[in-house]
Here is the input.
Amino acid sequence: MKYICEVCGYPYLIEPPYDKNGNGSYIICPCCGFEFGYDDYPDKEKSIIDWRNNWIENGYIWFSEKKAPPINWNPQKQLINIVK
Ligand SMILES: [Zn+2]
Here is the structure.
């Protein structure tokens, strides 16, 4: 089971960003670097949008040094995953 990052749309998170009560799992997205339960404090919705906009404005930089981006990684396409 893989989960989608609510910030950047990265679809291969190994844990859900939030549990069913909305508590962050403290997983860090390897793509955008957002830590769920930490970087979303105090305003979850605003933090997610701000982080996403920063990430886009900075040129979609891959965050993780340990984990490589997926083959043929396309950050713009990936963002379609979070269009609501
Ligand atoms: Zn992300």
